[in-house]
Structure formats: C-alpha cells, structure tokens
From TrEMBL:
The keyword Transport applies. SMART domains: AAA. This is Aliphatic sulfonates import ATP-binding protein SsuB. The keyword ATP-binding applies. Belongs to the ABC transporter superfamily. Keywords: ATP-binding, Hydrolase, Nucleotide-binding, Transport. One of its GO terms (molecular function) is ATP hydrolysis activity.
Amino acid sequence: MAPATGHAPAIMVRGLGLSMDGQRIFENLDATFPAARLTVLLGGSGIGKTTLLRLVAGLLVPDAGTIAADDGVPLSGRVAWMGQDAMLLPWARVDDNVMLGSRLRGEALDRARAHDLLERVGLSASRAALPSALSGGMRQRVALARVLYEGRPVVLMDEPFSALDSITRLRMHELAARMLAGCTTILITHDPLEACRMAQALFMMGGDPVRLSALPAPGGVEIPRAVDDPALLSAQADLWRRMLAS
Ligand SMILES: Nc1ncnc2c1ncn2[C@@H]1O[C@H](COP(=O)(O)OP(=O)(O)OP(=O)(O)O)[C@@H](O)[C@H]1O
C-alpha cells in the first residue's frame, strides 16, 4: 500500500509575520521544507515551533507573508496532523478512531484500509478495543494509523513520541520512517537522539526575531538511523552542545 496519496510538495514559508496577544512571534521568517523528506524542527520551549506547524496546517492565519506548496496547489486538504496526545475518541473502537476522518467528512469508511494499517502498526488484535484498554504506546500507534489512513502527502507531527518510553519510541521511529516514506513530514522534537535518527533535513529554531538554521543531518536519507551509528552519535553530541549553549 502506498504510504500517501498525491504529490508530496516542498513547503515554502516566505516573509512570515505573526503576533499574538501583542507578542511578536514571527517577523519576516523564511523557511523551505523539502519535498518527500522528513524534516526535524528543534528549538527551545516557547520559541514558536507548534505555532509554525499550526500556520502550515492552516489552523492559524499569519499577519504577513505566505506559506505555499511548491507545486502551486493549495495545501488545504493535503495535510494530516499528529500530536503528543493521541486524541482518540474514548467511546469509539480503535478501528473507528482510525476511520474518524472519513466519518467526519461523510465519506464511505474504508475498513479494509484501516485494518491493514492497524496490522502494520501491530494492533490487529486490538481493533475492536476501546482506547481506555490501550497503553500510551498503543494509543500513539492508533494515532499513527489514523494519520496514515488519511493518506495526505503532508504530515505535521508535534512531539508525537515524547510521552512514550524509550524502547517504544525507538520502535515508533521504525514504523513512522517506513510508513511516512514519500510524505513531506515536519517533526517537532526536543530529543536529540530522535532528531538524529529521523532527520533527512534538520532545522534549529531560535533567535530574536526567530530564524531557522539548517544543521547537517547525520548523513544519508535512510531513516531511522541505528542508535549506535557513529555519525549519529557524533551529530547527537553536537546537538546537545548547541542546545545547552542556546
Ligand atoms: N493561542 C495563543 N495565544 C497567545 N499566545 C500564544 C498562543 N499560542 C502560543 N502562544 C505563544 O506563542 C509562543 C510560541 O508558542 P509555541 O507553543 O509555538 O512554542 P513551542 O516552541 O512549540 O514551545 P514548546 O516546545 O514548549 O511546545 C509562546 O510565547 C506562546 O506563549
């Protein structure tokens, strides 16, 4: 099964300006998120990472500037979102949670696709369960299946694995990297290991006004990288130094 439908565009942010409650968040911010790659976005707490993702998702409207796909087609309707909280409906079964988007849009439910995705995330046996019967890691796997069910070429992930234990997190990296191949993905994380395992492009957000600085990703587009890869370990140490210095 293809991981996503539609062309995965590059996303271009140009001259972005935003203030909220009298506080300037962005001023003349530029960034380019490459097509069909997983971009990791790092940066200190409160710098504006989630706000940038919300702007890309169309959940917020900027005061100035543009956010556009490089193919000229509007981003609207081409974006899926996954956050730290799985945000499952507690009264709906796992498979119904995966198909929630179809139900909300009044479309036919693609049960076969939902079940296939649940199998791929290792949750076939739980597809009729309620979310309350699942662990945190299982809930995040349902959320991943739901994002993939949407088949959108652009996927925005706001610290999706941060609430998971470290082993489950490593497993989620395997799954997400495999299943998001071909999508234009932006992943926010505070975890240097996650950044170095997953990034095909890596940006650090910081400064006043806020800017995005490109950092070298550990090399190669094959992700996730092995936790003991020397290039990863060296990049991770470098990231820790940068984060401690910022
Ligand atoms: N709805 C809102 N109204 C007013 N200010 C907001 C709103 N949402 C966010 N902000 C402010 O915008 C700034 C950026 O917040 P944002 O959540 O984007 O940061 P972040 O980098 O994602 O932080 P963290 O890593 O802690 O999640 C913060 O100063 C925050 O207080």
